Amino acid sequence: MLLLTVKGAQSYEDLRKYNGVLYRTFKEACKARGLLNDDQEWYTAFDEAARWATSNQLRQLFVTMLLFCEVGDEHSFFEKVWKLLADDIQYNMRKTLNHPAYQMEEHQIKDHLIDQLTVLFKKCGGNIKNHDLPSKSVSSETLHGNRFIEEELFYNINDMLTQSHELQCKLNTQQMNAFHSIVQTVLSDMPGFFFVSGYGGTGKTFLWKAIITYLRAQKK
């Protein structure tokens, strides 16, 4: 399509350039030139399937469309339908963790969805990186499937604040000095090394619990 449109092109970069802008892919260059067809037919087909299909089936349909149909604006398509694709993710996570009230943030749900789409693309012989879909919000390895970490991240902030206050009230003077020194270092994002020494039963574990509880209440 670009070969028929761009006059005098002498390289692939010439084909991807339009109005002084070098686009990352040929599809983006086509989109900028208005050469791509309207995606309404794919939206309509997806909306019809969404009336009866499960979220898992919709994810498979979405991947199939991107691989084998001429979807012009993949990113817009994703943004339009991603909540339908991810409709079962929070429910499944609550079931896995046995926490009926577990609440995922939107970016976490999207990250889980991207993980699942990545697997589906691979099963179909494709690669999600070859498509104009959003990246995960975090660069670290996904927590999906790691029940221990998910459970550690699930707690009530108000309950944690109350527990933290109760623990601090029970610290003696030396423990409180150590508590403030360590906490202030952590909150200021400054490097630090602390060694807490004492005989068994002198409250080292209790101090540690007070520090961790306070920091968790601060979402650290």
Secondary-structure topology with pairs:
Blueprint: H1 2-5, H2 12-15, E1 17-18, E2 21-22, H3 26-32, H4 40-50, H5 55-68, H6 74-85, H7 89-97, H8 106-123, H9 147-153, H10 157-169, H11 173-187, H12 204-217
Antiparallel strand pairs: 1-2
Helix pairs in contact: 4-5, 5-8, 10-12, 11-12
Could you walk me through the main structural features you see in this protein, from its secondary elements to its overall organization?
With 220 residues, this protein is mainly α. The chain folds into three domains: 1-36, no CATH class; 38-152, no CATH class; 157-217, no CATH class. 58% of the residues lie in helices and 2% in strands. The chain contains twelve helices and two strands. The chain has a two-stranded antiparallel ribbon with strand order 1-2. The longest helix has 18 residues, at 106-123. The protein is elongated and about 80 Å long.
